[in-house]
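Example record

One chain of 139 residues, shown exactly as stored in the release files.
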Amino acid sequence: KVSSKAADLVDAAYKAMMIGIETITPHGFTGDIGFETNKIVTRKGYTTIKEIGGHGIGRVFHGDPFVPAFGKRGKGEKITPWTCFTVEPMVNEGTDEFIEFDIPNSDIKYYKTADMKLSAQFEHTVLITDTGYEILTIE
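Predicted structure tokens for this chain:
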């Protein structure tokens, strides 16, 4: 069983991801997603990590566009139909600062919050269509 504090953080991270996805429009901007995501997170008293976010999926697994968990409406990269990317805000209980670690013999990194407080993250992969989006990682 998790604490109510941890459950609230996890709930906020999931809601932030889903609100971010619901914000997606063809020809919109990644800043639109980040703005709505960050609004949910900060209203709950949490922070998002600015340097870590969603990413394009294609020929390169972690490609463009970068999909931040913060932003301004109408700013960022333009969202074009028939692209695929993830929405994955990393939500922290405390500071938005983090420590990055390398995994030996790998390009993969892992992270810890600088203040060692709780963090939560969810991820969905979405395909942008000419009329909206489709979540590819949901049943």
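Notes: The chain has a mean pLDDT of 94.
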